[in-house]
Amino acid sequence: MVKKKFDASLKYPFSKLASTEKNVTIDPKSDKSVMIKVKMPAEEFDGLIIGGINIRLNQADDTKKESEGGMQIKNIIRYNFGVVLVENETVIVPEMKMNKAFPSQVMGVNTVKANLSNTEPGIIDGLEVVAKVTKKGSKEVLYEATKQGLRMAPNSTFDFGVSMDNKAYQAGDYTMSVVAKAENPDKEWSWNKDFTVDRETAQKLNAKAADLEKDYSMYWIVGGIVIGILLVVVILCIIFYRKKKKKAEAERRKRQAQKRKRKKAPTNRPNKKRPIAGEISTKRSEKNKK
């Protein structure tokens, strides 16, 4: 059994003031009066001290038989009777505060909790609580919850949960904003508390969560990065191929231009004038005369 944690403002827990027999035996078809001793505080107190008397059947033997029979369900019936202690008629105005926000779970569902306290010895009736969770420094609401018709006992504390709807915890810094409105007394409180989900806590809670919705965002991110790298490689290859092709084309044109220049350039050898047939015969006759 989980030990009840009292609020720090509670001076006189009823369980510390009252005492009785732990086990009482009652015969079949009979009744029995049980005395409960209450030791009042030495000093007069204002407001209310609220407690309860819990009665349940001792089912140790039955539970053993059920375990031997292989049954998985154990039902325990309890009877609770409320007790209110008051010494004067001083009117107490309740006051609320938010102690902390923290990551947790409720029945296998990831749930962010706000620990709230009623720090005065008066009852808060008609309480409405609205809570929102955001990334630290962001206004985008990730998760939210609203509950109405709540009631807080004097000097008590409870955890108000905001379900994450089967989402997984992501490590990081967050802010929980809470607004509480009461009908009696007619008051309103608001708080903002930062909290951190470290990687170890996120992994631990996610491993225990039931029906956790799988987050494929990382796969999309990795896939996007891979596709981006491939696109960059393809673009670089295209650019490299085009530059290489352009360079080869320029070199080819340069070689063709050089060939054309060689064909058009004049030679340095003198052109010898070939004699005409008539001139040859004249020159020969002149030589004969000599």
UniProtKB/TrEMBL annotation:
Keywords recorded for this protein, A-Z: Membrane, Transmembrane, Transmembrane helix
Biased composition (Basic and acidic residues): 281-290
Chain ranges of the WxL Interacting Protein peptidoglycan binding domain: 3-55
UniProt-annotated stretches for the region Disordered: 246-290
Pfam family, one: WxLIP_HBD
Residue ranges annotated for the WxL Interacting Protein host binding domain, each copy included: 70-206
Ranges annotated as spanning the membrane: 218-241
UniProt key word Cell division: no
The UniProt record lists the keyword Transmembrane helix: yes
Compositional bias of kind Basic residues: 246-275
Protein name (database record): Uncharacterized protein
Organism: Carnobacterium maltaromaticum LMA28
Lineage: Bacteria, Bacillati, Bacillota, Bacilli, Lactobacillales
